[in-house]
Design goal:
The complex is a heterodimer of chains A (about 120) and B (about 110). In chain A, the strands form two sheets. In chain A, strands 2, 4, 5, 6, 9, 10 and 11 form a seven-stranded mixed beta sheet that branches. In chain A, strands 1-3-8-7 form a four-stranded antiparallel beta sheet, with no helix packed on it. In chain A, strand 4 and strand 5 form a beta hairpin. Chain A has no helices and eleven strands. Chain A is an all-beta fold. Helix content of chain B is about 0%, strand content about 60%. Chain B is mostly beta strands. The chains are: A mainly beta (about 120), B mainly beta (about 110). Chains A and B meet through strand 5, strand 9 and strand 10 of A and strand 4, strand 5, strand 9 and strand 10 of B.
Chain lengths: ~120, ~110
């Protein structure tokens, strides 16, 4: 298994530009999570999907952030327009869990995308 | 929401030493994971351990769910063990994995 795949691994962009981060979850996993890691705030959940449906986006910081999951094998996190304070490492994670039965299951993380907004 | 506290925040060891990292959480959980974030930033799964004890080589972990804590043991530490160790929990009834602030470990040769 290739694990969770993220692209690009590094992104440097200028303030005001649109940024799109991509994620391919582990095959067969039905839940996908986007996290952001900064020195100040640590690891924080932005949004998660179950069976391609957004379940909780309360962690999305602003309307400039949006996420989609058009199918079970692909998700995007878009920032438009980007700002310097968006600089962080963005992780995607996936797991196989049953929402209704409220069972925990192990999450696996991708290598992350290091975003720098100048 | 659930609170997760890790201790110690920083730890410096000589190669070969043993250590114990602790994770306390404030409510019942149905998921607890230990991760190692290596110096390259990758989050490596160490244990999925909502309860009980597991061992994997030099590492072992114990979670006492009724007392709301988990311990990660590192024996015969190596320089490659350096990095940040995170505990993350998922509260019963919720889907979010909540991370602690981590323990930063430096193993010197």
């Amino acid at each position: 298994d290739a694990g969770v795949i993220q692209s690009p691994r590094h992104e440097v962009t200028e303030m005001g530009q649109e940024v799109t981060l991509r994620c391919k979850p582990i095959s067969g996993h039905n839940s996908l999570f986007w996290y952001r890691q900064t020195m100040m705030r640590g690891l924080e959940l932005l949004i998660y999907f179950n069976n391609n449906v957004p379940i909780d986006d309360s962690g999305m910081p602003e309307d400039r952030f949006s996420a989609k999951m058009p199918n079970a094998s692909f998700s995007t996190l878009k920032i438009q327009p980007s700002e310097p304070r968006d600089s962080a490492v963005y992780f995607c994670a996936s797991s196989s869990q049953t929402l209704l039965r409220d069972r925990g299951s192990e999450q696996y993380f991708g290598p992350g995308t290091r975003l720098t907004v100048t | 929401g659930i609170q997760v506290e890790q201790s110690p925040p920083d730890l410096i060891l000589q190669e070969g030493a043993n250590s114990t990292l602790r994770c306390n959480f404030s409510d019942s959980v149905n998921n607890l994971q230990w991760f190692h974030q290596n110096p390259w930033g990758q989050l490596i799964n160490l244990f999925y351990i909502p309860s009980g004890t597991k061992q994997n080589g030099r590492l072992s972990a114990t979670t006492v769910a009724t007392e709301r804590y988990s311990l990660l043991y590192i024996s015969s530490s190596q320089t490659t063990d350096s990095g940040v160790y995170f505990c993350a929990v998922k509260n019963t009834g919720f889907q979010k994995l909540v991370f602690g602030t981590g323990t930063r470990l430096l193993v010197s040769p």
